[in-house]
Amino acid sequence: MPPGITTLAADAPTLSAANTGFMLICSALVMLMTPALAFFYGGMVRVKSTLNMLMMSFISLGIVTILWVLYGFSLAFGTDAGSIIGWSQDFVGLSGIGVTELWDGYTIPVYVFAVFQLMFAVLTPALISGALADRVKFTSWALFITLWVTVVYFPVAHWVWGAGGWLFELGVIDFAGGTAVHINAGAAALGVILVIGKRVGFKKDPMRPHSLPLVMLGAGLLWFGWFGFNAGSWLGNDDGVGAVMFVNTQVATAAAMLAWLGYEKLRHGSFTTLGAASGAVAGLVAITPAGGAVSPLGAIAVGAIAGVLCAMAVGLKYKLGYDDSLDVVGVHLVGGVVGSLLIGFFATGGVQSDAKGLFYGGGLDQLGKQAVGVFAVLAYSLVVSAILAFLLDRTIGMRVEEDDEVSGIDQVEHAETAYDFSGAGGGAAPRTTPPAPGTTAAPTNKKVDA
Length: 450
Description:
Layout: H1 17-44, H2 50-77, E1 80-81, E2 85-86, H3 110-128, H4 138-161, H5 166-170, H6 178-196, H7 212-231, H8 241-268, H9 273-290, H10 296-313, H11 316-320, H12 328-346, H13 365-395, H14 402-407, H15 409-414
Antiparallel strand pairs: 1-2
Helix pairs in contact: 1-2, 1-3, 1-7, 2-3, 2-4, 3-6, 4-6, 4-13, 6-12, 6-13, 7-8, 7-9, 8-9, 8-10, 9-10, 9-12, 10-12, 12-13
């Protein structure tokens, strides 16, 4: 605040029912993204891993919610301590927050801000799971989530978004999570898979998606929920910035999907549904940090560039030999890096802030800040995630047994299968005992010769 200016009581923010309702709806939309991600990932794996893939996302809803209430919100958004972490006793257990107490500088209650940010914290570790398909013990995964959000996500969220966080104070722009969510999750995925190794049969056995309709359903629900993820991150709807972000989300996603499909057609000769879904997600990832800084034309550029680069990146796992099962590194890490860095080129200085990119006369200053944020989060998450995976692998073990992986992780870890092929329409076993008197015998499906 400039010297000599006094804030009058009348100027203090008051609770806005409109903004509060808007943010609660956005929170629900972001919550929907975790089940949507489960469907997206679940359709991409083989039948024998479907339920495990769904559960790896759903368990995050349980674990992270409890941790967020107990101490996560305090670590991420409490009073700054050394620009690295936060802590506020009133946020522990969400026990010292007044019902109508407002988030500082905004017109929404602290409870609403807390639940909105909770949904981000839930989604982020779920994103990692796609890289680990088919081969991780469910108990080990649950423990990894617990440790990872505590020592990686909560601190990084404070760096990027918390008042006093070092990247926040540096001026790094991350509207809705390019660094804190997508680079963070993508780098973590790379760190873990470098420790636990490849799936049995990687580059030898076919590992095609078992249900592309399920993939498309998940992608569509992600696209829908992402409007809350992005537009809601302005924490209100009073000045039009959230509306620009909403538009840019749609525009960049469309551009990325088309760019991915175009690259795919030129490179492989076909337009695939998996490419359309993956391209849409790549665009959503890339516009997440940038959408409040660029114009709709800039959003087209961000989406198109991300669509092509992410499509190129997913093939690197075969050349470099790391088994990123469902392309978390290629889409989320690369897409997050692309979107975050392109702010340094396409920021107009006329939306969320006056920071301008290179193409709008801002020089290289903002690009330099974005690069610091990108590589700091990438390096921290990669190293710490690899250490956590190594410790778990050497103690309780991260991977299921090889025979269990081959036979199917669903049956081993969950005692269930996704589809019952022996039920109606699947061919029932013939009856082996006579029917009771007065009943009709079930058909045996045996061929009767004429």
